[in-house]
Design a protein that fits this description.
Helix content is about 40%, strand content about 15%. It is built from ten helices and ten strands.
């Protein structure tokens, strides 16, 4: 029997799922056609879950789904088109999903963009905040009824230690009054992911739906496609010097899968995890294994929720 207290930085998704049975569980993973999303889907399908992965590129998604079906022997792997930068697209996706499924056990808000040049979503929101937070905010709200029906159920949002780069700057979320800085934008969106988990837990925790935010670790996946050669080289130099622990994709997916399934987290939520552990709140430590207080502040979570409802034009209440 696996000693679950020993999971850590190098544990893999398969490690944390040892002894876990996901037969009969419905799992939805956004951004499931590349990187961590693929490994999260594969690991859960291998344990019997019915997995739905979303992607923008449906041909690519079908190739991934075919590979997962073949490698796991589990044919219950579906694909769905979803563009998180389009509120209309999110609403259309949710309508299709709700027409097919009357419950949802695990939602993994995995998709995202990182450190991209300034841009806007279809609806005019700054691209990183719009995609990483607002898109998932609306989609999760629309799917809340089936998460409640599936309770006990879980929502896992991929944040990052990058949340330490910036709190949510409520007075200038869209960088209209300051120069755009891609890493500050990314940090703001990742802080929003943590605050969203806090807001979800307040609203859904007593109904058996628990929410988590996770830092997967440093992994070079397609998420890094907007990083410059200089930034990538700096990353590699830090790794060579022992200042940065770069994970495999298998280890990178572990904390997501842990938050989604760990029995020791049952009945608890609104938490931020890294390396398969709940992180301490710390505003001073120079560590990727802590969460800043502004990212778990209940008042900031409420302010973000209200502002997000106004931005997407939908009241997200349960």
């Amino acid at each position: 029997m696996t000693d679950r207290s020993q999971f850590g930085i190098d544990s893999t998704a398969d490690d944390v799922l040892d002894g876990i049975d996901l037969n009969g569980k419905l799992v939805l993973i956004t951004g499931g056609s590349s990187g961590l999303g693929v490994e999260t889907a594969r690991a859960m399908a291998a344990k019997g879950a019915h997995v739905v992965i979303t992607a923008r590129d449906m041909a690519k998604a079908e190739m991934v789904a075919t590979d997962i079906r073949a490698s796991t022997g589990n044919n219950a792997v579906e694909i769905e088109e979803l563009e998180l930068g389009s509120l209309a697209g999110i609403r259309a996706f949710a309508e299709r999903f709700l027409a097919k499924h009357d419950r949802l056990d695990i939602l993994v808000n995995n998709a995202g963009v990182m450190a991209c040049p300034y841009g806007t979503t279809e609806d005019g929101f700054e691209l990183q905040f719009g995609t990483n937070h607002l898109g998932h905010f609306l989609m999760t709200g629309l799917l809340a009824p089936v998460l409640i029906k599936g309770a006990p159920s879980r929502i896992v949002s991929l944040s990052s230690a990058g949340h330490q780069f910036s709190p949510v700057v409520f007075d200038d979320i869209g960088f209209q009054h300051r120069d755009y800085q891609k890493w500050l934008s990314y940090g703001q969106s990742k802080t929003a992911n943590v605050l969203f988990a806090v807001g979800l837990e307040k609203r859904l925790g007593e109904r058996g739906v628990h929410a988590y935010a996770v830092h997967p670790g440093a992994i070079l996946t397609e998420l890094a496609r907007h990083m410059s050669e200089e930034e990538i080289e700096g990353y590699r130099q830090r790794q060579a010097a022992g200042d940065l622990h770069v994970k495999t994709v298998e280890a990178g997916a572990a904390t997501t899968v842990y938050a989604a399934t760990a029995p020791e987290l049952e009945g608890r939520g609104g938490l931020y995890l890294a390396d398969c552990r709940v992180c301490d709140v710390d505003d001073r430590a120079e560590s990727w294994s802590v969460v800043r207080s502004y990212a778990v502040d209940p008042e900031a979570a409420e302010r973000l929720w209200t502002m997000s409802e106004e931005m997407v034009g939908t009241s997200v209440s349960f």
